[in-house]
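BUG: 3D viewer hangs when loading the predicted structure for this chain

Environment: internal workstation, default settings.
Expected: structure renders.
Actual: progress bar stalls at 90%.

Input used:
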Amino acid sequence: MNKVFKVGLIGCGHIAETYFRGHQYFNNFKIVACADINQKAAEKCAKLYNIKSMTVNEILKDKDIEVILNLTIPQSHYSVSKKVLNAGKHVYSEKPLATYFQKGKELVALAKQKKLYIGNAPDTFLGGGGQKAKELIDSDLIGQIKLGNAIFAFPGVENFHPKPESWYKKEGGPVIDMGPYFLQHLLIF
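Structure tokens produced before the viewer hung:
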């Protein structure tokens, strides 16, 4: 029988729905609790997905929860992930791992020191489109690639995101939020 990891989610915003929808396809983890700085958001999420609502401190102290899914805004990823690691739990964070390279390196070093796992999105390079493109490139179907280009253009985050404020704050915006997807694809090809 496979182990099922109990996961606590911190950050009950817009992206949480995607993780709840996706987690039904996996048999090795289960989201069992959620927390948010906005307690009403946590309670709404808990009710919608039939899980426990907790405070951030409660979720970090819960001995049954082994992994924290950090879905906070990019500006909070570093501080929340550091708290998670210091609480002795594994952490998977939305992208970016941190908004500054040195702080990301610090998190990786802390995870190694504590013998914990740390990971983060973008996971899109594991998806069908990216994998098929890599397969075609690796088969030499199109020859050697000399240059890559990535363009991100759309009418604005306000068209899909219910709370786009973090995009307009320091350490936010499309380069931090969407850029990792394009950069990851350019790097693996």
